[in-house]
Predict the structure.
Amino acid sequence: MSLSRVLLSCLLLATISLPVLAGTWTPDPALGNSDQHQRLYEIARTYCDANFDPDANLVGTSSNNPPNKKSHSVRESLSYAYTLLLTGDPADLVLAQKILKRALTTQDTRLDSPTNGVFSWYAEDDWATIKNPDANSAAFDGLTCALICDLDKQHPSLDADVRSQVEAAGKLAVAAVMRRDVDPGYTNIALLSIALGAAGEKLWAVPGAGAFAEAKLDKVTNMAGDEEFYEYLCPTYMGVDIYGAYAARKFSFSPAFATKADALIDHLWKEIAASYHAPTFQLAGPFSRAYGDNMLTYAAALKYDLFLALDGAYPLPNTETDHDWDKAGLAVIAALPILPRSEFKQPTVPWREFTATGPDEKHPVRQFSQYRDGNFILGTVAFQDEWKQKRNLVAYWRNDGPQPGGFSVGYCIDESNETLPASALAGFIHFYSQQVKGVALVALATNRDVPLEGGCSLVFDSGAKASDGKDAGSLKIEDGTITAYLYPVTAISGTFVPKADANNLRVNRPWTSSDNIGSGTALHVLSYLIIFRPSDQPAPTVSDIALKGDESGVSATAKVDGDALSVSFKN
């Protein structure tokens, strides 16, 4: 089946499964690709309708929300209110105001509170007992309040008391983000804060809000320079970045600010397009953070922006379940003027090296490599600490698959950080690598007591099959169009062990088998060499695999088809 027919099949299947909506929204023709904008609205409306609790007048958490959470989501409820207000339907307007009256009571309005202006994520939380409230909610929920106020100014629909409540909540949230003044390296929250500050200036004339927004915009833009933001290539948070940038443009309060917001939008799309892998519909890695392995099967926020930027040429089946609560906010995206982008028509390059600069001297420059060859792409970061959600080595490839899609996504992702105990802090383990085309030499290292649980873990999709390699200790992982050859780099007899379940093939080596290298405080090291080859090509020639160390540091080395790779680091 051709790619265009695959996309059409996915879109038709998704469309015909939608229930009849109580109210409808017709996008402004000025948005351009109106059918795609309306499609996102329908996804949001369907999710919120299905999860709405009329007894609480709030959106309930879906069965796929994170475990051990409360029952009703404030952010999603405010998004639902905006979704309903867009239609102008009388019944929708009544319901939206009921939701607003309830959801806005979750904001901390205590004058002497350090979290004044912050919202709780869940309606069941009590500010007298809440633990570790998330200040990010002020940026998310405050911006939704701003959008609701702006919509009400254009098409008055709120009762006077509700209008006053939304405005008051929005102003408190503006004050909260200005007081917090989040680090510009925290890109997604920084961009939301810029947009909310701009709204504070334009809608409510909050003292200092415009100056705050412009100064923050300058800091974020200058830090990125011509390359990636510090919070780089995150399939979820780059979607938030796009939202923040377009919202900042929407609430521009001067021609100069609008010009800067437009430049930010262009920069974001340039970087996204440079890392987009069209054969698999994935954002290429490495990722600063990720909430899933395959954007086609989880609600990664960025893919909905890609759906608009690619003029609908991105499949949105109605089968995404992981992280599905993000669908509740899609009406916000649907109402923004995200048009097809010319960046995706530019030719891609087979080899790309680029960087992301940190907000201060404590955050080193991150150096990235990406190699693509037809249906395959591999990306790595040269140095990074390990922490939950970071993905420091990411490979994708396209395989033929069953109908209706006609293809499947193969992948290999280093998820070693997910195996660490919950008590492990950022920086407990460090990741080092060198990439040469489709080959990566990797070392994980720590100078602390080796964890009793976890280890090096490479995760493949469920279609991958592992067998012993031709060299001792090596594995051969076959997965459709790509075969991976995995070698332990070790001074002992460490090996990787494959373990398959219904969803993935996981290849693991525990920390208890790590090498102790160096004098004094020894480094504990888990190192590997991984080589990706098209399955119809001969196996690579591998030699000179070694892991060595002395008082000057540690080095892992290998040769692959004559190319020398080396990773060196100190205690």
About this structure: The longest helix spans residues 160-180. Residues 121 and 570 are 42 Å apart (CA to CA). The first strand starts at residue 52 and ends at 53. The chain is about 30% helix and 25% strand.
